[in-house]
Specification:
Layout lengths: L5 E4 L12 H13 L4 E3 L8 H10 L8 E6 L1 E5 L7 E2 L4 E4 L2 E5 L3 H15 L4 E7 L5 H17 L3 E8 L3 H9 L4 E5 L13 H8 L2 E5 L15 E2 L2 E2 L2 H16 L4 H7 L7 E7 L3 H12 L4 H9 L20
Parallel strand pairs: 1-2, 1-14, 2-3, 3-8, 8-9, 9-10, 10-11, 11-14
Antiparallel strand pairs: 4-7, 5-6, 12-13
Helix pairs in contact: 1-2, 1-9, 3-4, 5-6
Length: 326
């Protein structure tokens, strides 16, 4: 298969917002594999472990040397006595509320979380472990969780360690104060929000660290900028809706869907190694791969700058990133 710079985000197959059947979840991973995608990202948080279980099942027959898996620590899943009532939609997932999430960035919490993830995945190792959303637990994550991950890396239990967040300030601090390998930055380096460019991306580039960019569509606004669209999982404010529509008018004038420009944009920065793109079906996976392959003219980015939709200093891609590395 041709190499790819897309990683499949597996929150969708964990029933993010709405149910996905087992067959559809398996078909999504199969479609990614057939397209050449070999990097997969999951977490205990996604569907109370459902995402990890489904991903593990989908990869069961694949050669372990041919793919990478990243998962996350920071939330332990504790069974609810009696199996729990209702669903987990308050946390975004259409699954039975059989467990509750408990924040835990202690060293023991890291070990317990990783062991449980390996069991759900059916794997004896994962390639990357990320601290997941330690916004309100920064000091414990630095003092306890990070050293535990560093030991696991030194022992060869995991290949690389890092942090995954929807903000850029704390990951930038981790880059300065620790020896993490990778940052998963969600929603903060997109056509609508380049917050990551202020500090995090230059820091990562200077230190030779990898950045994976997620949330390139800002939870939906950059896929379909229509009334009712969401931005960062909430209704988009009118100002951003208007800006997204202006972006779309420029990209479409160049014959490029807004989704394609949004997907390609992060690759303009040298620190960005991959884009993490979620999918819940084979059709969505194939659409993402086709978008990545579309030729985007340099004039598109020039036009966005001329209309004030991209600042002069924001780097943009100059060629298709497809095929750079597996």
């Amino acid at each position: 298969m041709p190499p790819s710079r897309i990683a499949l985000g597996c929150a969708g197959i964990g029933n993010l917002y709405r149910p996905v059947g087992d067959e559809a979840a398996l078909a999504a991973v199969d479609a990614a594999w057939e397209a050449g995608v070999r990097a997969f990202d999951t977490a205990p948080h996604y569907g109370l472990g459902l995402s990890e279980r489904r991903l593990g099942e989908a990869l069961r027959t694949r050669s372990r040397q041919e793919y990478t898996v990243s998962t996350k620590v920071g939330r332990l899943l504790e069974p609810v006595p009696g199996g729990g009532d209702g669903d987990d939609l308050a946390n975004g997932f259409a699954v039975p509320a059989t467990h509750r999430r408990v924040w835990d960035f202690s060293a023991e919490g890291v070990r317990k979380s990783l062991a449980a993830s390996l069991d759900r995945l059916g794997l004896d190792r994962v390639d990357t472990v990320l601290l997941h959303d330690p916004d309100d637990h920064a000091e414990q994550a630095l003092r306890e969780a990070y050293p535990a991950l560093e030991r696991l890396r030194a022992e060869g239990v995991v290949g690389s360690i890092g942090i995954g967040m929807n903000q850029s300030a704390l990951p930038a601090r981790f880059l300065r104060e620790t020896d993490i390998d990778v940052v998963l930055l969600a929603g903060r380096y997109t056509l609508l929000d380049q917050d990551g460019l202020d500090e995090l991306l230059p820091e990562a580039a200077a230190r030779g660290r990898t950045v994976v960019v997620g949330g390139v569509f800002n939870s939906g606004l950059l896929t379909s900028p229509e009334a009712g669209a969401t931005y960062d999982y909430a209704p988009a404010p009118d100002s951003l809706l208007d800006r997204a529509r202006r972006l779309a008018s420029v990209t479409e004038a160049h014959g490029v869907p807004l989704r394609a420009a949004a997907l390609r944009f992060p690759f303009g920065h040298p620190a960005v190694d991959r884009v993490l793109s979620g999918a819940r079906s084979a059709e969505e996976v194939r659409d993402t791969v086709e978008l990545l392959r579309l030729p985007l003219p340099d004039a598109l980015w020039d036009d966005l700058r001329a209309r004030g939709l991209l600042a002069p200093g924001v780097p943009v891609p100059t060629a298709s990133p497809a095929g750079k590395r597996p």
